[in-house]
Structures are given as C-alpha cells and as structure tokens.
Sequence to fold (255 residues):
Amino acid sequence: MAENPRLKGKGTGARVTKTADWCFVSLTVDMPDETPSARTAAVGIDVGLNRLATLSTSEGYENQAFLRTALKKLRQVNKRLHRRKPGSKNREKARREVARLHYRMTCMRDDVLHQLTTRLANCYGMVGIENLNLKGLLKNRKLARSFSDASLGKLLDLLTGKVEQRSGQVIKVGRFFASSKTCHGCGWRWEDMELSDRIFLCQNPSCAYYQVAQDRDHNAALCILFEALRLIELIDQAVNDIGSGDDVNLTADAG
Ligand SMILES: [Zn+2]
Fold:
C-alpha cells in the first residue's frame, strides 16, 4: 500500500475481492472500543420517495438526484447489451459495462446513506423514525425505482447500527400512526389528504397552526418525533414502576 493506514491498531488480516472489474483489498485492524459520550438531543425523521429524509429540525436531504441520470444511462447500456449477439466478445463487453454501472450506482447511494446516518448518530441520542412498509412500497412501484425502495431499508439498518453503537436509541413509530395526516400542533387529522398534497393545512380553529402552510414532510417529522417521545415515556414509566418494587406486569406494547 502506498499510503499510511489511517487506523492505528494491530493489522490482523487482508482480503482481496473483485466486484464489477474493480479489485479491492480490505484490511482488518484490531482497535480498542470507543466509548462516545451520550447524546441527549432528539430528532424525528420522515423518510420518503420525494425527499430522502426530512428532519423535525426542518432540514431536508434530497433523494439521490444522480439516480435519475444513472437510470437513463442504465437503460441505454441495457439496450445495447441486448442488441449484441449472445456469446460474442462485444456482448461480454456490454455485460461488464452494465455491471460496472450497477455497482457505481450502489456506491453513490450508499455514500449518501452513510453520510446522513453518521451525521444523525453523531448529533442525536434519540431518533424517531417510521417503521417502513417496504413490501407495500415495492408493490406500488413499477420502474427501477425499486432501487430507492431498497435504500429506505438500508437507511434503517445503517441508522440503527450507528445510533446504538453510540448508546443512543432508535424508536420505530408504527405505520398505523398516520404521521403525514396529523397536525403536529393539535393532533387534528386530515383524513382525505392525498399524496399530491405537499402542504399541510390544519383546520382546527383553536390550533396555533390553524391555516398555516406547513411542509407536509416537516409536519410528519415533528409528529414522528412527538410520538417517539411519547413511546419512550411509556417505556421509562414501565421501567420505573418495576424499579419501585410494585408488582407490575409489563404488557404495554411500545410498538
Ligand atoms: Zn393543528
């Protein structure tokens, strides 16, 4: 290797792999466990297909725009692949091009997901997120968008791993909880809200957000945050009850 390893520790092994014409060496380094300080801030996240993630702080992470360009290119090279004669050298060349493109798309997507989840885990000790119905999403989609559906599952996995490693917790809010249709200020429900309604308007005259234009995803993220905090309180309460010596059966379903 022509550079100094950035990790200090005892090297215990190396593995060479080949993916889509690229060779990789992974080094295993034995390092002491870090014990990061506990974080106390809480955040809610609304995950979607329009915007990858919207935080309750109103920050947004755009869905990977490169996907659209890459998908177009993928269709081109796929077409080329199928025009080539089976068994020919040119067919093999085209096949490798398709494989390389697939791999590059995965890398770019994972890069976005890693950056987002590392940031969240570094900043927040409690993350509320919707428990996604991935099967339902996949059923509704037609195109190669299944790719972005797969990102949502990966986002959850990465997030849970990183937050728990830093001794924080990820609270999954059940899908039965309609975060998008609920006003975060008063709990008023917009029952016939459509997917195309991007602005949430609360119709409860006594609410502070009455007729105030709220971004749909931001409102949802706040609802998810409050629901997650409510669930945590339930868990804490149950733990405290047990701690006080009362004979309490833990039957509350925290989702
Ligand atoms: Zn309201």
In short: Residues 89-123 form the longest helix (35 residues).
